[in-house]
Please model this.
Amino acid sequence: MRHIVALAAASVMLLGRAEPLTIAQAFDPNSVSQAALSPDGKSVALLFFDGNDFQLRFYYILTDQTRTFHLFGEVKEIESGRRLTPRRITWAGNDVLALDYGSLALSVNRHGKVIAELGRAVIQRAELGNADSPWLLVYTDAAHNDIALVNAKTGDRKPLTHPPGTLGDAAFDRHGEMRAVTLLNTDAERGISTFSNWYLPAPGMPWQKLAEFGVNEERWTAAYVPDKPNSLAIRSRIGRDTYAFFDYDTERKKMGEMLAGHPTEDILEVKGAEQGAYEQVVTGGMRTEHVWLNGAWAGVQQSVDKVLPGRVNVLSGNPRDKVLVYSYSDVEPGEWHLLDKRNGTMKRLARSHPPTADVRMRPMEITQYAADDGLTIPAFLTRPADGARNTPLVVLIHGGPTVRDYWG
Model:
């Protein structure tokens, strides 16, 4: 890892020459919104905005070459006709990408040519254990109540059905079949609304109702459907202060052992479980933490964190070959690095906001204060650069009731 350490040292030297952020730099629109490594680890797709137009850029790792395509002029929303901007890219195999515009999703090939209209928004890849699979899970209506399996190469789709009600949450098995849902049902005559949780034992069988909750009651939701029959992994904080993942017996309709939990931080995600292996747990405390349970990935994470200290470093790819690193912090808006594990080198591919690359930003301190009733409130605090005290305070209040701010 000698080359990686050298790269880190160069980055530290840049920080010493940094200047304060100007208003022009803060509002400069040039940006990279996302990067994604192809399943075979041979290329990286990136979304660029140059201030006027969005671009899809492919970086080919073996040849160290780049191809850039402008994204089809103006893509417009079906109902309003307003211009849409690409927000997310998802690989569907190694030769096709899904471009998500928020209310419209399209698939494109490596030449930037549109292949098919997929629906309204991509949820995720359908077959997480099959890198070559072109199948995606997609919301097909504006209300996100209807879901289908869609082939990104052909546009073929298979609608997935659920019992009557407004879809709140859905969970899938490793084949991309929707096997658990949370629905909102409203009795207009009685003026009563309830949430209900349902389970599908197997495709083609009838749905089974597992639980019902009032709209103001604490409830659990299904996170994923393991291969184990009559079993769910659910996310719940019933009887707890924080969300944790639990096993759930669908025959007994009873919560079982805890699968992943933390006494003071919510568990946001458990990765790899759909494929029968718990690889990573993501926690949602004041600073997001990515904890690897897979030994190979844990070693890569430790090496990257040493090179890029004081940041959240998000890894994807193959822990023994090519790894895409998204690195951000309170003073770094974000950048993508490509780590070649075989030869021990790391190359920076892009910054999320290039105009702020060499500016000096103030850190977000994690603090807390007591409310009038004594309740402890966590908060982020950014102090003046000159260390002045008793200065005016700007308070940025987030929405509610479940919205929060994040470090970074």
